What does this fold into?
Amino acid sequence: MRGAQTVEKISVRNTTRGCLLGDAIERADTSKSRRTGLLERTGLAKGEGLWIIPCEAIHTFFMRFDIDVLFLDRKKRVVKAVPRLRPWRLAFSWRGRTVLELPAGTIEETGTAPGDVLEVMQQG
It folds into this structure.
């Protein structure tokens, strides 16, 4: 298909807790992909997510669903965790360099907390 763009998926593992946070996570590392974020989605299935690079603040204006948010430093250490962030809210971290957006409930389900170290793995 002409003009179609293949979206590369990554896996993110919490090495501190020994659990998988997601295996179908997309990277948002261009101006357009960071601006769009999850705005065109109606939800996130388990294992899906968005890794925004670089990013220290997000908003959920115009979103239609709650998300879990992890702010990461340069070493992929969690510096702030925001569970179940509702639409029409803001979240930021001065120490954050990237943001991982996950389905609501992922933080609680995995026990992910500030100080945990994450590992990002390319698929295939």
The radius of gyration is 14 Å.
